[in-house]
Automatic annotation (TrEMBL):
A cellular-component GO term for this protein: membrane
UniProt entry keywords in alphabetical sequence: Hydrolase, Membrane, Metalloprotease, Protease, Transmembrane, Transmembrane helix, Zinc
PANTHER family given in the database record: MEMBRANE METALLOPROTEASE ARASP2, CHLOROPLASTIC-RELATED (PTHR42837:SF2), REGULATOR OF SIGMA-E PROTEASE RSEP (PTHR42837)
Record membrane topology: Multi-pass membrane protein
Name the record gives this protein: PDZ domain-containing protein
Keyword Lipid metabolism belongs to the record: no
Keyword Signal: no
Annotated PDZ domain residues: 132-215
SUPFAM superfamilies tied to this protein: PDZ domain-like
One GO term of the biological process aspect: proteolysis
Length: 718
């Protein structure tokens, strides 16, 4: 019984409740729009035949002054029916009713048409003002990370004079912890506005950011100038313009409700106070600590906290946890590229070369890739000659086995019974697959299934049936894949690599480097680092037989400790650093509300421009179902966030509805402007043809977008 109650509560909280909130919110937005038409129509003397709350069959109501005021079955908005005005039905000639929409002046009719969008804007302004008085939280405009090779990392910063002759007037590159104060002269209160400004910017746009940087007890303010480049847009299949910055987080463990992570002794809501007794004040403080890690376990001091950051908890609430850092391949400030000839290249940028003649004869021109080298040079290689750049671990050409560090709930891996910490022994027909091979097997067996064998709790498990599924167009099983760093088993040997030349085979277990015992991959890396400049010999077992592999003195490019990095809490998300906007002064709240309306209007038009210019993909368009899906996710974050979102929808509805397209209010406004210029309206025949044509195009667009929305929603549930 208790389980049933919890299940019902979960379904209500996750789906039913948010969907009802969206239906009510959308209904309110549409109702306000129609109310605007109604008020102005009555004001100019147009006979309103029907004013309905909701749509569908009439439930009840009253008739007064020739108007039917009614409540309809479906509580989704409402509508107004005026005499002589039709949105989709063919217009009729010869209307002589003085209360008809068609017999009013152009100015009066324009006022009625525009009243709906004006009402949406007024409604949004009022709601924004109320939210400003109550208070709302947003991700703070503070930088948490800067990606190498992106404009933010290369931005020129001119600092304001702080009176200290020892501080430089200029510097290059934004840093974690920098707070963005303004963007092109406008105040920035939330990080999301930085992202949208970049995504919707026209090509070649240059931005100026006013930033505040604190180092120790010194705070400086400066102006950073930068452009944009295209990069992957998280959560989508498209590339968009980006600055190359990510939002800051707090050193407090959050929760990812969709992911099952390996047990690590840490809990949601705990604040990281120190690592190996080094104090942690900000999440970005961990970067300097991680830079000095060598794979050995560290002691993490944590303390439970709540959303109010109360400091009066009992002293014994603080505890220490031993955490083993995760071994990862370096991705900053360069990435390692392995070539088919066995050589290794370290590049700050890896980009496909655009061939102007590709359209003429693509078959004879193999794709090429430009590598920007760390020494400032560049190298162009054939794409087929790159073995991999997937940032998987590669030590002298040897790769560790794969390990599932986390599983996504409801996805194939979790449904099949796999667990966090499982080591992949075989998948499909491949023993100890690499990451690239795992992805290839996902593609090969998508929707038809195969078997996977894992190593768990000290023994190899029986084969498990698993069926990869497509998610966002990519076959996957829903697993966070990392390296099995605790077992020195060689899962793969790269061809023509030092390990291949030394005779290391797939499946070998390494036990010693020269005379140094090793049992884990971090220990192997530390041993190779300690033996720099000396001949290297690996000892171990290959099945039941001992093996020995002589490498000699390693070449400078074969092994670099900098090619690897260690990360703490790799599967533990931190809470987003939030800022609270609350205006106790009503005038300040009014100013903030008006600014939010202005911003959303500008962003709506910028979005349309970006779609027309091709800087944003049409795949990003959302119809009613897509908007409902987003609304459900926002509703789960709380009522204030949801009301803010619906106010944004109200502004967007105003902008879209006043576009100069047939059937929409903007299309009617165009007819009125033409009538004003010509001195007489277009013929009913022409207007009907335009209206019907526009309706067909609009319905076609809605159907296409809705179909994509349905595919996304179904895919997410699958």
């Amino acid at each position: 019984m208790e389980l049933a109650v919890l299940t019902i509560q979960g379904v209500w909280g996750q789906y039913v409740g948010p969907l009802l909130m969206f239906a009510i919110g959308l209904g309110a937005v549409i109702f306000v729009h129609e109310l605007g038409h109604f008020i102005v129509a009555r004001w100019v003397g147009i006979h309103v035949e029907t004013f309905a709350l909701g749509v569908g069959p009439r439930l009840f109501g009253l008739r007064r002054g020739g108007t039917d005021y009614s409540v309809r079955l479906i509580p989704l908005g409402g509508y107004v029916k005026m005499a002589g005005q039709e949105d989709v039905a063919p217009l009729k000639e010869g209307d002589t009713d003085p209360g008809s929409f068609a017999n009013k002046t152009v100015g009066q009719r324009f006022a009625v048409i525009a009243a709906g969008v004006v009402m949406n804007v007024i409604f949004a302004s009022i709601v924004f003002v109320v939210i400003g008085l109550i208070g709302i939280q947003f991700p703070a405009p503070v930088i948490g990370g800067v990606e190498p090779g992106f404009p933010a990392a290369q931005a020129k910063i001119i600092w304001q004079d702080d009176g200290d002759p020892n501080t430089p007037d200029e510097s290059v590159g934004l840093k974690p912890g920098d707070r963005i104060l303004t963007l092109n002269g406008r105040r920035i209160h939330q990080f999301g506005k930085l992202q949208f400004a970049a995504i919707l910017a026209p090509r070649g746009r240059i931005f100026e950011m006013t930033i505040r940087r604190t180092a120790g007890d010194k705070t400086r303010v400066g102006t950073a100038t930068m452009g944009l480049i295209k990069g992957d847009h998280p959560g989508t299949e498209t590339k968009v313009f980006r600055f190359g910055i990510s939002p800051a987080t707090e050193p407090i463990f959050g929760v990812n409700e969709d992911v099952i992570v390996t047990e690590d002794g840490l809990n949601e809501g705990e604040r990281v106070l120190a690592v190996n007794d080094q104090p942690i004040e900000h999440a970005w403080d961990l970067r300097d600590i991680e830079a000095d890690l060598d794979g050995r376990p560290v002691t993490v001091t944590v303390r439970p906290t709540d959303d109010n950051e109360q400091e009066d908890q009992a002293p014994d609430a603080t505890r220490t946890v031993v955490v083993r850092p995760k071994l990862l391949a370096a991705n900053k400030p360069y990435r390692v590229v392995f070539l088919a000839d066995g050589s290794t290249v370290r590049a700050t940028s890896v980009k496909k070369v655009a061939d102007k003649d590709e359209k003429d004869d693509p078959s004879d021109k193999p794709s090429q890739v430009r590598l920007m080298l760390v020494d400032g040079g560049e190298r162009i290689v054939a794409e087929k000659d790159i073995v991999h750049t997937d940032r998987s671990i590669d030590v002298l050409g040897m790769a560790p086995r794969l390990l599932f560090e986390g599983l996504t709930k409801g996805h194939p891996a979790a449904k099949a019974g796999l667990k966090g910490g499982d080591v992949v022994v075989s998948y499909g027909d491949r023993s100890t697959p690499t990451l690239a091979e795992l992805r290839a097997i996902n593609r090969e067996f998508v929707d038809r299934g195969t078997q996977i064998v894992v190593f768990r709790n000290g023994r190899t498990q029986s084969p498990i049936d698993i069926r990869p599924r497509k998610k966002q167009g990519k076959p996957q099983i829903g697993a966070l894949v990392m390296s099995d760093q605790e077992h020195l088993v060689v899962a793969h040997v790269r061809k023509r690599s030092p390990a291949d030349a030394a005779g290391v085979a797939r499946g070998c277990i390494i036990e010693k480097v020269n005379d140094l015992p090793v049992a884990t991959w971090p220990e192997l890396i530390r041993a190779l680092t300690a033996l720099k400049g000396k001949p290297i010999t690996l000892h171990g077992r290959n099945g039941s037989q001992p093996f020995k592999a002589d490498f000699g003195i390693l070449a400078a490019g074969d092994f670099r400790p900098q090619d690897y990095r260690y990360k703490l809490f790799a599967t533990r998300p931190f809470r987003m650093l939030k800022t609270t906007i609350r205006n106790t002064n009503p005038l300040q709240a009014l100013a903030w509300g008006i600014e939010e309306v202005r911003y959303n209007v500008v962003m709506a038009y910028a979005n349309l421009r970006a779609l027309l210019q091709g800087t944003v993909s049409t795949k990003e368009l959302r119809g009613p179902i897509g908007i409902a899906d987003i609304a459900v996710q926002v509703a789960r974050q709380g009522a204030i966030r949801f009301v803010y979102f619906m106010s944004m929808i109200s502004v967007m509805l105003a902008v879209i509805n006043f576009l100069p397209l047939p059937v929409l209010d903007g299309g009617h406004a165009v007819f009125l402007l033409i009538e004003k210029i010509r001195g007489r309206p277009l013929s009913v025949k022409i207007m009907n043809a335009v209206q019907i044509g526009g309706l067909v195009l609009l319905l076609g667009l809605v159907l296409i977008v809705t179909w994509r929305d349905v595919e996304r929603v179904v895919e997410s549930f699958m």
